[in-house]
Request: fold
Amino acid sequence: MVLSLHSLFSQLKRGFLGAEGQDLIEYALLGALVSLGAVAGMHNVANSLIASYNHLATTFNSLV
Reply:
């Protein structure tokens, strides 16, 4: 009886550890996807900032 309970506990433990590992991989993939989206979005933000600064520089140069 004790041996079978120990065996059952071992199997449950392995099952939970396998699920936690799978969850960790899913979170890592989700984090990679979010960071990739942030990098792609930053490219558009950078281009908008460059255009704004160029417009300001042109405006100030025309005042002088």
Q: What stands out?
A: The helical segments are 2-63. The mean pLDDT is 81. The longest helix spans residues 2-63. DSSP finds one helix and no strands in the chain.
